[in-house]
TrEMBL record:
Signal peptide: none annotated. GO terms for molecular function: ATP binding; ATP hydrolysis activity; branched-chain amino acid transmembrane transporter activity. InterPro entries: AAA+_ATPase, ABC_transporter-like_ATP-bd, ABC_transporter-like_CS, BCAA_Transport_ATP-bd_LivF, P-loop_NTPase. CDD domains: ABC_TM1139_LivF_branched. SUPFAM superfamilies: P-loop containing nucleoside triphosphate hydrolases. Residues 2-242 form the ABC transporter domain. Belongs to the ABC transporter superfamily. This is ABC transporter-like protein. Keywords: Amino-acid transport, ATP-binding, Cell inner membrane, Cell membrane, Membrane, Nucleotide-binding, Transport. It comes from Caballeronia choica.
Amino acid sequence: MLSIKNLHAGYGKVKVLHGITMDVPKAKVVTLIGSNGAGKTTTMRAISGMIKATEGEIIMGAGSDAKRIEAMDSHRIARLGLAHSPEGRRVFATMTVTDNLILGAFPRLTWARPKGDVSADLERAIELFPRLKERRHQLAGTLSGGEQQMLAMARAIMLNPDIVLLDEPSMGLAPILVDEVFRIIARLKDEGVTMLLVEQFAAAALNVADYGYVLENGRIATHGPAEQLRNDPSVKAAYLGTTSH
């Protein structure tokens, strides 16, 4: 579904990623954990086209449908079915909740992706995130931080994507909202949505994920099934002692 091979990327002369290789299989949740500055968000930005890889391959799909996307612009990658819910939410503050969600389906409305039933998917997104249902006519900028995070996630789902990148969905949220975010991620997983999750709460991420990668200084330090990483003494000591919730 998503295959990353020897990925190098950074910002100008600052190199952040030094040869990352990882896979996100179809209908699975893969999490990328690591300390601040390890390169997690840079990885997500390189995958979605927000920054360009300087070396390596990013491949979406499999077999005859496989496409290399590392040189593509973000809008072309989105049309192929990759949705990115970025760190920091980035909702359209002066537009309503409903209009933000409809914008998430824009490639479908322009037939750049199969259209399907956008109205039905809009209602599904609202039902999936009950707090948004109550505020569907509010301007996005008037929502709380937690509500804006849910809107960013719901907007990504409106693409009817083949894969979703979730970058720090619990950042800055109260514990009760963190629990709700992970409940929604678990539900999407049950529905077969393919996800790559970057998350500060490593324990919670490994609880919902099928597989995990640990990123240190722009390199993959270790990887394996999520349960294996949860029980790995070095991973526990570095990431699970203070980041569980």
